[in-house]
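Exercise 7. Given the encoded structure of a 89-residue chain, write a plausible sequence.
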């Protein structure tokens, strides 16, 4: 097995702009949130009873897509929109 030499060119890295749009329209994730925090991501949402656990489906860049009362509901919406969901840790 041969090692790389210092004179070999490195692969081109993504620009900040390219990285920011990585996964646009194709990848989403589900985030658990408290009902008290909903208005921050969804300013148009009606008032929701405090103390509830909800599930937000977010695009790869963090753009809110849908809010659901179950994780399964959020994942079903991703499936309907043909979005690949990923797990974030």
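Solution.
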């Amino acid at each position: 097995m041969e090692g790389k030499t210092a004179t070999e060119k490195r692969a081109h890295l993504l620009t900040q702009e390219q990285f920011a749009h990585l996964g646009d329209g194709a990848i989403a994730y589900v985030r658990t949130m408290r009902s008290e925090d909903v208005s921050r991501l969804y300013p148009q949402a009606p008032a929701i009873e405090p103390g509830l656990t909800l599930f937000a489906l977010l695009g790869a860049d963090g753009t809110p897509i849908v809010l659901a009362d179950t994780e399964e509901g959020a994942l079903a919406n991703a499936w309907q929109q043909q979005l690949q969901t990923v797990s974030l840790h």
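Remark. Residues 28 and 59 are 4 Å apart (CA to CA). Students should compare their own answers with the one above.
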